[in-house]
Amino acid sequence: MEFKRHTKETAPEASVPVLEATEKAFGFSLNLFSVMAESPVALSAYVKVNELLQEHAALTPQEQHVVMLAVSETNNCEYCMAAHSTVAEMTKVPEEAIKALRSGKEPEDARLAALVRFTKSAIEYCGWIPESEQKAFLDAGFTNRHVLDVISVLALKTLSNYTNHLAQPPLDEAFAAKKWSKEEKT
What is the pTM of this model? Predict the structure, then answer.
């Protein structure tokens, strides 16, 4: 399957405002977005869910990026691991936590470790998370609102991870320093 990387000139009309806004926000056009632009629904959904998480989530920005890294590592998404490692560092996720997540391990911080376990359980059990895992998550200080935020981040990352798997856009230069491959976690 081959996917076109769109520009503002070649993208469907409904994708152009989203591409312009994200280019302005990031200072460059993300290769992932150039692929997602083929579907105004996919591109807009990704951007809108991300905005809603930033504006209204109970999860902190650091916790959101821990979930994003946990999902992307589980799904072996090289593009998202590089991108979210970069952004996680910018949002002050502890370096130890980023390193652990890139290796497929849990962070030492107990709360972040509980967040990673819950996230990976949600993936492993397709949402049918065992009660013991649910209890451990709540016992770590999270709430039902956090549960739904994790599921929202999981949906967001599934959209980008699967798009990256199929389209294989090149890694943006801005993320090159954090390049990752699934062999890192072995």
Answer: 0.95
